[in-house]
Predict the structure.
Amino acid sequence: MRTEAPSGDKVVHKHGKQDAKDSIMEESLQHFASDVGIVCALEAGGKITPQEAYKQIKARWKELKKAKKALYPKDIKDPDDDKSGD
């Protein structure tokens, strides 16, 4: 997962300007979605168990949350942080 800023501070999207943090977060979300798709395909194809698929997706979710917290440390507290077992 990328944590460094891409070259250039601003990226123009159809909805206007996007700063470097938003670009990194968008890339992280796309990477997460791709990984989840791969894990689901492996599980559907019988290459891994449903339990292993869950474990892998949960690990990638934690990586995504960690990246978000690193990029946006002053954001409102995530309600999922209070749940035990994560």
Remarks:
- Residues 19-73 form one domain.
- The chain is about 55% helix and 10% strand.
